[in-house]
Amino acid sequence: MKIVAQVLMVIALFFAVWFSLEKIDWMTIFKVEKFTRSTEEKLGDMFWEIFDKSGKGIHKSEIMIPLDSMLTRICTSNKIDKKKIKLHIIKSDEINAFALPNNHLVLCSELIISSEDEAELAGVISHELAHLQLKHVMKKLVKEVGLSVLISMATGESGGKIIEETVKLLSSTAYDRKLEKEADIKAVDYLINADINTEPFANFMYKQADKELNIGKHLVWISTHPGSIERAKYIIDYSKGKSKNVHPILSKSTWDKLKESLKEQ
User: Fold this and answer.
1) Residue 211 — very low, low, confident or very high, per pLDDT cuts 50/70/90?
2) Would you call 86 helix, strand, or coil by DSSP?
């Protein structure tokens, strides 16, 4: 009798689960995923257009070509489709970099000028690239803004004020600690695979954290990323024993010329 009862219970459980699955609106779920991809593409282009139309975009070849070379090395070494990454430079006195939806990667001019060498800058680029590859940008937006609001923005049904606030959210606030650590660790992997020294990435955080007391309002990338000292330490720890032979991407003269060109903007 016990066996019969157990069999009947299993059968009842099976039909209960089957009935529950039948009630799930799978089309809605798949449509949401489709909407998310479509929305990401529209939002990314819309957000970047706001920056570009403000006159802040820098497009000069003597600036873009060296930076494109750095991005190419990182992407190629890590099997990232570089054609999908949209690299932008904006004129700004903020030491900042940020990622926008649809693979837009934005660097502020002062970030590049303040970087001691290409390896420091490569660390920040790799960090933001990791946010893109790990899908952190849309996770952050969906969590803090909401999918319905994002879709309304992408379809033109949302006001300009909401769009501006969302752009500000991405360019001036940090991800949570878990996502930041994921991006940091992935960035170190990117640097190692690209034969770029990882130590300057950690040193960049230390250096900017020390300066923050004096010019904190301009240190957006550091000041909005909590625990920068802690992060620098685990970046160094994670890098131990993993680094290969490092090879420069840019010559010193090219690097110096890049910074001088940005100072003239």
Assistant:
1) low
2) strand
Residue 246: count of CB within 10 angstroms of its CB: 14
Distance CA 121, CA 114 (A): 9
User: Is the sign of the CA dihedral 128, 130, 132, 135 positive or negative?
Assistant: negative
Say how far residue 173 (Cα) sits from the centre of its chain: 12
Tell me how far the alpha carbon of residue 92 is from its chain's centroid: 19
Contact (CB, 8 A) for 40 and 135:
no
> Which residue's entry shows tokens 């680029």?
125
Cα 31 to Cα 35: distance, rounded to the nearest angstrom:
6
Residue 245, helix vs strand vs coil: coil
Structure tokens at 106: 């934005």
DSSP line for 136-154: HHHHHHHHHT-HHHHHHHH
What phi-psi label fits residue 225: left (phi over 0), alpha (psi between -120 and 50 degrees) or beta?
Answer: beta
Q: CA 40 to CA 103: how far, in whole Å?
A: 9
| Assigned token pair, 21 | 């699955």
Instruction: Compute the distance between CA of residue 74 and CA of residue 196 in angstroms, rounded to an integer.
Output: 9
Give the Cα separation of 121 and 207 in Å (integer). Answer: 13
| Contact predicate 219/124, CB 8 Å | no
- Contact call for residues 83 and 138 (beta carbons, < 8 A): no
243: tokens are 């680094």
- Verdict on whether the full-model pTM lies above 0.85: no
Residue 17 has pLDDT above 70, yes or no: no
